[in-house]
Structures are given as structure tokens and as C-alpha cells.
Amino acid sequence: MKKFAVGLLVLIILAGIVSGLGYMVRQRAAKEAEQQYYLGQSFLEKNDDARAREAFKTLLEQSPRSRFAEPAISQLAMIAERAKEFDKALGYWTRLESNFPMSSRSEEIKYHKGYCLENLKRYDDARKMYMAATEGSQFYVPSRCGLGRIEEASGRLLDARDIYRDAVKASVAGTDDYKEAVELLGNINVRLLFSKAKTPESILYRVKPGDSISSIGSKFSVTKASILRANGLQPDTPLRVNWSLKITPFEYKVVIDMSDFRMQVFANDQLFKEYDVGLGRPDSPTTPGKYVIGNKIVNPTWYSPKGKVYPPGDPENELGTRWMGLQPLEPNLPTDLGIHSTIHPNTVGWASSSGCPRMRPADAEELFDILPLRTPVLIKE
Question: Which residues contact 168 (CB under 8 A, 6 or more apart)?
Fold first, then answer.
């Protein structure tokens, strides 16, 4: 009996030693996994994705069951996405979903799987992932944007526009999600306007004897450029009687918000597109108020405040290639303001001008082709 008790005591002691050693090994492994994870994070902070990838892979090889395994797989998936290695990224997101079925990242995983599948052109599978997003969740707006891109890539432009509109309404102004949704909406609106695609707002006009592009534009208050671009015509193309021309007679208005250097263009009271603008410096501020576009000039001459005249095409001509003069509708407003392009595109988005709203050249040229004369412009503080 005594020998049995001694043997039992020895077994208990050995079990304790083994358990303690196991605990120490697990603690050491956990510590090493933590160090490896934060090593990877430190490389990410230095934008060194290659070394971060190796650190996270090492962690998973050495400690596949540590509490850092889940975020390490997520980081590997994001690194692969940034590198546009969508097959690899999809594999990581799928692994994450399989290994951690109860993860709080479930909706994030589905969104990113959708994004990878979209880029792999597996649109039906991507659509299922995007549709799983819950309204009001963090990934709802990005998922709606993804669904819109799929519809757009599939040629269903009006469906895509409706989805982008929904995404804009569901997002918070100023956030990255809002900016993405607004950019997609603006781009497709311009694409629809300048293409032969029929929309609920467009009409088919049959050319009559004596018609010209300019006279048709005046009749419907649309720009000559928008008619030419929507119908694939050159400026010197002679019109033929009974030709059908696509016309989109939107009622536009422009709102320039001085607080965030953004210009919103509305068409029939729906947001059409947003642009960045540069506004007046503190010593020459932009004057808020109500205006209309009174004149439009391609390649304008610039009469500088110092009295020097810069002709069209001069490399120092601050007005660039486009000028849309603003005619005041209220007393005590300046008469020399205009929306124009700039030869200094890096000055757009902050207080940089002598008072006029300035735009990047491509944006100004696009807007010039969209907005007809007499379009209302509100500049607000």
C-alpha cells in the first residue's frame, strides 16, 4: 500500500512537471506568435508588404492555432489584394472563413471575397457575396458599389446607376465610402450622357430641314458638345433630315461648398457628379452668392490682376483651357468671377486662387461640355 501511495505521488509530481512544462511551452509559443505578429505589423507601418508577408507566414507555420492566426491570415489577404493577387487573396479569405466560422469578421470576409471574385470576373459568385451585406453595416456601401460595378461591367448601366444612387444615400458625406459611391455615380452619369445609351431622361429628336447642332442645343438648353458626343458626331459632320439624335435635356444646377472645396452638380434635382475645386486665398476670397453661367470660352485669354495679358495657350495663362463666366444674380457680387481650369492642378482642393473656382483641366473640360449657359451656380460658405 505504501509503495502504491509513493508511486501515485510520483505520477502526480511527474504530471505536474509535464503540465508545467507544457504550459511554459505554450506560453513561449504564444509570446513568439505575438512578437511575430507585431513584427509583421511594424513592416506594414513601413509599407514593406514583402517582409510583412514573410512575418505573417512564419507565424502561421509556427503557431497555426494562436490567437494571432486569425488577424495574420486577414493581413495576408489584404497584402495579396493590394498586390492585385486576387486568387491568393481569395484563398486567404476562404481559409479565414473556414478556420474561424464564428468570427466577428464574417461580413468583412464576405465583402472581400466578393471583391476578389469581382476582379476575377466571377460575377455571379461575387454578386452573392455582396448581397450578403446588411443595410447599415460597415460593408453595406462598399458592397453596393461592388454590385454597381458588376452591373456596369455587364452593360446594365441604368441598373448600375440606381445601385450607385442607393450607395450614396446610404453613406455619410465626407467619408471614404461616400467618396467612392459619388465617384462611381458621377462617372456613370457622364458615361450615360455622352453615349448613345437611352435613359428615362433622354429623347430622340428627328432632324428637321434647317436644323443645326447649335439650334437644336438652343431649343433644348443642352450643349452642342453633349449632342455631338452622345451621337458620335464630329463638329463638322453635316446633319441629314430625319436623322434621330439622342438629346438629354437635364435641368442642371451647381452648388460650390466653400467649407470643403467641393462642387456638386445636380441634374433634375438628382446628384449628377462632384468635383474638387480650388477657391480664393484669404487675401482674395471667393464671394458666396447666387450666379448663373453667363459665358463660356475655350482657350480664354487671361488678364492678370497685375495688368499683364496672357493669350490662349501661353504656358503662364492661369485659366488653362476653359472658362465659364459667372454672372451675379444678387447685388454687390463680383462680375469677374468664373469657373476655369488651371495650369496648376495641384492647387485644386484648397484656398489657392485669386477668387475664382478652379478645376483640374480634365474636370473643367468635362464640365464645360455638360453645362449649358444660364445654369444656376450657388456658392455657399
Answer: 178, 181, 182, 185, 271
Q: What whole-number distance in Å separates Cα of residue 223 and Cα of residue 201?
A: 16
The ranges of the chain with pLDDT < 50 are: 18, 21-26
Dist CA 22 CA 14 (whole Å): 12
Domain that holds residue 295: 252-380
Q: pLDDT by residue (tens digit) across 318-337? A: 999 999 999 999 999 999 99
Decide: 360 and 341 in contact? Cβ < 8 Å: yes
| pLDDT per residue as tens digits for the range 56-79 | 999 999 989 899 999 999 999 999
* Whether residue 42 sits in one domain with residue 170: yes
How many domains does the structure of the chain reveal? 3
291 pairs with which residues across the strands? 328, 377
In angstroms, rounded to a whole number, what is the distance separating the alpha carbons of residues 206 and 176? 44
By the 10 Å C-beta count (0-12 exposed, 13-18 middle, 19+ buried), 34 is classed as: middle
- Which has the closest alpha carbon to 228: 187, 199, 193? 193
Beta bridge partners of 296: 324
CATH number at residue 71: 1.25.40.10
pTM, entire model: 0.89
